[in-house]
Amino acid sequence: MRTVDEHQRVVTALIKARPPVRVGIADALGLVLAEDVVAPLSLPGFDNSAMDGYAVMADDVASASPDSPVKLPVAEDIPAGRTDVLTLKAGTAHRIMTGAMLPSGATAVVPVEATNAATDTVEIRAAAKQAQHIRRAGEDVTAGTAVLRAGQIVTPAALGLAAALGLAELTVIPRQRVLVMSTGTELVAPGTPLAPGQIYESNAVMLAAALRDAGAEVVASVMTGDDVDSFRAALAAHTGDADLIITTGGVSAGAYEVVKDALAGGVEFVKVAMQPGMPQGCGVVDGVPIVTLPGNPVSALVSFEVFLRTPLRAAMGLPDPERPRRTAVLTEDLTSPRGKRQFRRGVLDADAGTVTSYGPPASHHLRWLASANCLLEIPEDVDALSAGSPVQVWDLA
Ligand code: AMP
Ligand code: MG
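That is the input. Now the predicted structure with magnesium ion docked in place:
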């Protein structure tokens, strides 16, 4: 039997980062920058008003007070977006709005609240400090500086900054494109009637969601029966430009193991010393890496967590590709099969630092996984743990 660590290494080696691409900023959210972003311009781009008010020379209004306002003729009206370049003459004011370009010669902005708000001759009722309410060109960003670094995730704020700098595209590490295929003649799509002996398909939707949650792109999510020809046909039809294929089912020791039967040769099928998730396989089909997961839904999702999520995220350059691992105190006695690494579903109480296993260890109890918030990782050489023992958990929250 292959160890978990060894199978992790083999799967990880199959998953390769794609070359960087330029994408429109609207499509860059959550991706990782492949290069530094150097500001092509300064922010603000020009001196502008931080308030709605009046641009003045501070010296002209030095004596202003509520009791003896200074009266200045309003020579210009400058809304935001006015593009002609203005000069303020001594002894005059320009009415100016927030964000509008400051006229040259102005040394302060008096907020409208400190005036009578007039448009012909304004009464200024407070003295102004030099430079008050002026946003200077370049005080946020100086042109030529690296404002975002390669390796940083594109957040909403990073997108806002890129847009403010006039950048319509960013160079990012693209998402991994993954084809999901579930196999089983017994499977029926949710929303359609069931005949006796049939079950609803759950792996494809679950893995597609897990992939998207991990930052990957799902190129297609396909369900096939257990005959080799239709499996091969579906594979050929959908592989397209996938970077990775993930299948579920058809890899254990029974008859009608369609994935095993169809892919013998290019794919290595192994037993991995873990519970759940013992039957595994991986390899390359028509130049595309493939990882074949077991069919039981809990096995499939736990296998995705253990073998695929981290290398996929690493290949997309994500800074924290692994689930956070914590040590928590077990609240109960547990047993685990010796010689296998067990991943039990658990409920972690992060405040108390305790963890309780949740549901039976078997691989078809999906209900418990759906309400668990962690996996308990019990090492191969441990067959029993007593309440109060420290145990490693993978935080899924
Ligand atoms: P297999 O690995 O194909 O032998 O499947 C193992 C168990 O998982 C069987 O009980 C299957 O019916 C079930 N199973 C396999 N694939 C799926 C799926 N996509 N959705 C739900 N159950 C499945
Ligand atoms: Mg099957």
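The CA atoms of residues 14 and 82 lie 57 Å apart.
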